[in-house]
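# step 3/5: fold
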Amino acid sequence: RNATKKIKCSVFFIVKPLSAAEKITTLATTDTTNFATDDPDNNIRYIGANPNNYVYFNCSDYSNQTDSTCEKWRIIGIFKNVTKSDGTKEDLVKIIKDDSLGNTIWGDSVNDWSKASLQTTLNGDYYNGKYKTGAFKNDSTRNAIESVVWNLGGSSTYKDVTASMFYSRERGTTVYSGHATTWTGKVGLMYPSDYGYATAGGTTTNRAACLAKELYNWDGLSDCKNNDYLFKSSYRQWTLVSYTANAASVFDVDTDGYVGSYGAGWSNDVRPAAFLKSNILITAESPYQLSVK
């Protein structure tokens, strides 16, 4: 009688890392605490006082990503159909530096981002590693950023504008006479709508109530500003959007939590923002680590 010989086989599965957009999309399908998709285009956004959206970026050594080799940035979310510099559209992940790059003027008293001194600094010396503090360290960081079309639509009012109204106006063509309505480049700033949509709200004023309230009046709504990771109580922050009633004012986020207009020739703190290329993978979490070459 022939003996039956048993053969033991081992099967190994290799888990392929997800792209940053794939990872966030997957998380957002089940997590309604740290994500929301309620802006006009249903973009996926992180929300809350301190969601787990930290990402190591601008690292001196991407093969050894730590607090000492990298800066901490935060993922704002995934934005749909972003127009790239070549005219094609993709869903891209938007990130922002967690802390300030420093305090500086926005634009020599002119609120046209395409010509602003801050724009040329961020996409010149800062991008090329020559800025006085915190510049991009290497080509690996530079090559991870997509060049995209940034909308420069502004608003002629600010005391009655909600997050959704800012979102619409940012994508419009209302600017001060002769100023650019779009700009193509790599490094920008957050929009007022980014700040507004990042709130989770609280027990007294929930998210829906926060979004229904004018951002100018958020200074009296602790639930809105304190449950918003983009809020900084220690410094005022520039945004990308101009106040179009004059040629020299820009919207900023105040230390009291409201969005108001401020002279472009005055100084505020700067948190650079950028869009990652769609092929960037996430290889680890808490903070997220990116596969950057």
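# step 4/5: annotate
The mean pLDDT is 95.
# step 5/5: archive (pending)
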